[in-house]
Design goal:
46% helix; globular; binds magnesium ion; binds 2-acetamido-2-deoxy-1-O-phosphono-alpha-D-glucopyranose; Phosphorylase Kinase, domain 1; Aminoglycoside 3'-phosphotransferase, Chain: A, domain 2
Length: 357
């Protein structure tokens, strides 16, 4: 398979080492490294069960790349490379779609946030991306996944699935289902803020896990990567997903929930990093939702995993029986700990915003 795909980009597979890269759940990614040359690339296979219109991804990233290179030529934007035919996505004979990217020399990715500086740098980069695109006309962007972070429709889907799931899974998931209903106020808040259009749509990344940031060798953030979910959205999606994935030293895969913790100083780092770039743009209504962003994204991920468990793991797959139920319970545990820290978090946001410049 690699022979033909790489040939479409004028590369000979036998001249490269090809290794799986990263830990994404949806797309497949490989690092392609020259055996006797210094060329390095990232090859990505788009999961078309999830992204039904892969060309929409290429169209979005080309438009954004064009805008950034025109207005901010110094900004590092990692664009997909064109194939021999000039396409930015190639359909292979196996029916799958592939994209090739240059590998940014001396860049590093990490899978776990170990220091508050890493959290700060990542938050700054995601904020910078949205901030630089503040003047971009978002109506030009495709929605690469419809309803992706729409908690209202996710909650409706969850309720539909509860009605038709098999008894055994329903029994095992009883406590998690109860947690989902106990916290439905989070979904209601989302519904009112979107229906009443209280906050603006912006260009949002929608997948702010730490592995989607390139760092340099001095641990400074370079840029954001993995742009397949970049589309119009709310800034709370990005900030909230950072809360979800940076605050705890244990991630969503952890089965020992006693390891799930909230690191308050990492919260401060996210607030400081994000506001260092976006403070000028945020409306008062947006600012008031800073802490809520964590509730939103942790809760949404919990019900996405739970829905998938009740749906026989069709979306995320499962590496062991009950995998998605464990992931959901993990996220509900994180949510409970996050909620306990909320008052403290409100104070942190308040004092960071009002710090003398
Ligand atoms: C998926 O594939 P990956 O790991 O980048 C998912 C995210 C979830 C994440 C949970 C398109 O992202 O929304 O937060 O898993 N992406 C899609 O690990 O569903
Ligand atoms: Mg992703």
């Amino acid at each position: 398979m690699f022979n033909d795909i790489l040939k479409s980009f004028d590369l000979k597979a036998q001249e490269y080492h090809i290794q799986p890269f990263g830990e994404g759940l949806i797309n497949r990614t490989w690092k392609i490294s020259g055996i006797e040359n210094n060329n390095e690339f990232i090859l990505q296979q788009i999961n078309t069960n999830v992204f039904k219109t892969p060309f929409d991804i290429a169209e979005n990233t080309n438009k954004i790349g064009g805008y950034l290179s025109k207005h901010y030529p110094d900004y590092l934007f990692v664009s997909a490379l064109p194939s021999n035919n000039g396409d930015f996505i190639v359909k292979h004979t196996d029916g799958e779609y592939y994209r090739l990217f240059p590998y940014v020399k001396n860049s590093v990715t990490i899978n776990t946030v170990l220091t508050r500086d890493e959290a700060f740098e990542a938050a700054r980069q995601f904020a910078k991306f949205t901030n630089l695109l503040a003047g971009f006309n978002i109506t030009e962007l495709n929605y690469t996944l419809s309803g992706f972070h729409d908690l209202t429709s996710r909650f409706e889907e969850f309720k539909r699935v509860v009605k038709k799931a098999d008894t055994e899974r329903l029994t095992k998931a009883k406590t998690a289902i109860e947690s989902a209903f106990e916290h439905q106020d989070i979904a209601e808040t989302h519904q009112s803020l979107t229906e009443d259009e209280l906050i603006p749509l912006r260009v949002v990344h929608h997948d702010t896990k730490i592995s989607n940031i390139l760092f340099d060798t001095d641990h400074k953030g370079l840029c954001v990567i993995d742009l397949d979910t970049v589309m119009p959205g709310y800034y709370i999606s990005d900030v909230g997903d950072m809360m979800r994935t940076y605050l705890s030293p244990a991630n969503e895969e952890e089965q020992d929930f006693s390891k799930i913790e909230i690191r308050e100083d990492f919260f401060t780092a996210i607030v400081e990093g994000y506001l260092s770039e976006m403070s000028v743009n945020l409306t008062d209504a947006e600012r008031s939702l800073f802490v809520y962003s964590g509730n939103l994204m942790i809760y949404m991920q919990a019900i996405r995993f739970l829905t998938d468990y009740l749906n026989n793991d069709v979306y995320y797959g499962a590496q062991y029986p009950g995998h998605n139920l464990i992931r959901a319970q993990n996220q509900f545990t994180l949510l409970d700990k996050y909620i306990k820290a909320e008052d403290k978090f409100q104070q942190i946001v308040f004092s960071t915003q009002n710090q003398p410049k």
